[in-house]
Amino acid sequence: MKTFVLGGGCFWCLDAVYQKTKGVTSVVSGYTGGHVRNPDYYDVCSGMTGHAEVVAVTFDEDTIPADIVLDMFFAMHDPTTLNRQGYDVGTQYRSSMFYSTTEEKILFEEAILRNQELWSKPIVTEVVRLPEFYEAEAVHQNYYAKYPGQGYCQVIINPKLAKARKYYSSWLRA
User: Where in the numbering of this chain does the Peptide methionine sulphoxide reductase MsrA domain appear (predicted)?
Assistant: First the structure.
């Protein structure tokens, strides 16, 4: 098993896509990259903690290659916008990849180079060593599955799921 910690805007969006991905065994929403210990959602949303909303995606490489997990990441958010994804604005929504090993750092850097050709603007995704990861509150775990009718899910997450189905249908569960 391998775990990648990735930030691409609101963690609910990445969580929704990866929860439906074959070979993914766990998706945990959380916070990392900042200077405040044990932050909560309201602390992070203030923009004053330095933390990003992220997901820790654990997957079986025998089922889904790491490159596919990373390519999905770049397809599910706009990695060319600094500190924003759509209407979500602030450093907590930055595009980020947090590595634990040199091997992961290399995989992340290669994924940026591979995916740059899909974007007309430069990718601004930060690649930094993973500091402490703080699990988000229970309400944020598997959010889309619990609240699919909620407005944000309908307007923001559903189009991302449709895009995932269009480009990665063979890697998604029904």
Answer: 4-154
CATH match of 2-171 with 3.30.1060.10: yes
Residue 86 is classified by DSSP as T
Q: Which two tokens stand for residue 154?
A: 């309908």
Map out the domains of the chain as residue ranges.
2-171
Return per-residue pLDDT of the chain as tens, 174 residues.
999 999 999 999 999 999 999 999 999 999 999 999 999 999 999 999 999 999 999 999 999 999 999 999 999 999 999 999 988 999 999 999 999 999 999 999 999 999 999 999 999 999 999 999 999 999 999 999 999 999 999 999 999 999 999 999 999 997
In the beta sheet, which residues pair with residue 57? 4, 27
Helix (H), strand (E) at residue 98: strand 95-99
Cα–Cα dist 34/39, whole Å: 9
How many of the other CB atoms lie within 10 Å of CB of 77? 23
The residues assigned a catalytic role are 10
